[in-house]
């Protein structure tokens, strides 16, 4: 039997926490995961039918350069869990206003050797009959993107981790963390470890003041829909699509591999409490409906199957940087910020595990996770783990 390199408590069983556990187990650590609900928890940001992954990263070019490795981490994870919960494909962007998007994407995709090209506007009505053409200025196809299937990933990863010896504590809400002692209190009991990783998603500010200045929960509405009959086939064959405009701003995931058509809002509310109600009101849905009418033809003829409230954790400023920082001498905080937490989850978990294992310095890990390293510096962070 291999000797454990130490015991780590992970708080939170979303993609960040489970990925960190996965990277730690592979390095020979003993891991305990505390989750306030069931595992996986339907109230987690990570719990959904699909998530987008891509190389085209808009103005966040630092993250664009991390994406090839993020894709590789997922392939490694799929190998371990024995299922590839991923549907590769192109991602199409529909631009309606002068948004700062094309130049940085062209630069990053070219540097990464990934293909992208413009779609003639005249082709849109036939290729994308669901798209509203009014106001369209540019359509761009970016390759090497696709859909991840999170519920399946979380479930299989939980099984894999359980089989690998991770001690799961479900329905165990951590009430307090002592970052110097390495203890957590849950259900009235104190548990001790060599290190504690807080991966508590939209609840992070309830457990630590460390990132309260930079991170805020964001209540978001999404809708699952059935399209009008004449658009059913077009949606079945559709790619992932993102509409970028000042008034519009939505993303859509087509119904593939047993999932439903989903449309979500690209604008963050930066408001709400993840412990609060999850009932989508007319007010929650107002902006999404307005934006969707600008992006999709005949949107009022779609039938709503479910209106869902979920939470992102986002930065208070527009930087959208992951907050990955040591807290005290024994704790780490791992907080995804914005809409890229799922696609980068396994890579960020790997980064935190590498820092705990002493493979990278704390400062370098924080800078790397924030997407603030040059491509050369980031490449040097590829750890053996
Ligand atoms: C609608 C929507 C669409 C998105 N689209 C994309 C996308 O297309 N691509 C992409 O990459 N990302 C996307 N994201 C972002 C991504 O889903 C999140 O960034 C990511 O899932 C966050 O993972 P996490 O593990 O940090 O948080 P979570 O998944 O929320 O996990 C945190 C866990 O910690 C638990 N917890 C909290 N506090 C405690 C406590 N005190 N004790 C015990 N347990 C606790 C929670 O119950 C939860 O299970 C989207 C998010 C949303 C909401």
From TrEMBL:
Residues 7-354 form the FAD dependent oxidoreductase domain. InterPro entries: FAD-dep_OxRdtase, FAD/NAD-bd_sf, MTOX. Coiled coil: none annotated. The keyword Oxidoreductase applies. It holds the Pfam family DAO. Keywords: FAD, Flavoprotein, Oxidoreductase. Its cofactor is FAD. This is FAD-dependent oxidoreductase.
